[in-house]
Fold this sequence. Notes:
It holds the Pfam family HAD_PNKP. The protein is α/β, with parallel strands linked by helices. 34% of the residues lie in helices and 17% in strands.
Amino acid sequence: MTTNRRPLAVFDLDNTLSDARHRQHFLERAPRDWDAFFDAAPQDPPLPPGVALCLEAARQCEIRYLTGRPERCRQDSLDWLARHGLPEGRLHMRRDDDRRPARVTKLEVLRRIGRGREVRMLVDDDELVCEAAETAGFHVVRADWALGSRALHRAQEKEGRT
Length: 162
């Protein structure tokens, strides 16, 4: 572990820092409207418990953001973080064509950024992501302050979309 760098605190976006409930209806119909789902993300209200935890963690840690959102949503995501006063931090996103489950893609990124750095915590709402990270030895804080949906869970695990 490098001793001259602050530890990392890694935060998910959807239903951890941002309240995505208002757009989940796009995933509850067939066919799912992924473009509309992601286009509505800039209107997500912040989730105060997640934002407060991120601001608190930034006192001791370097903040990183780890989302299952596709790369094409980068600018909207960065704008949202800035607009809501979240700390600056590198944003790790899914490739536009990557459809692997979130528990696979996020763990891959965690392992990569954790080489030579302490990952003090991962904060995420996806139970399967949390379980995979804990099994791999990461400290996890479950973001249980938002009400998720079955449609979003299916999207994360079965379709590799968020």
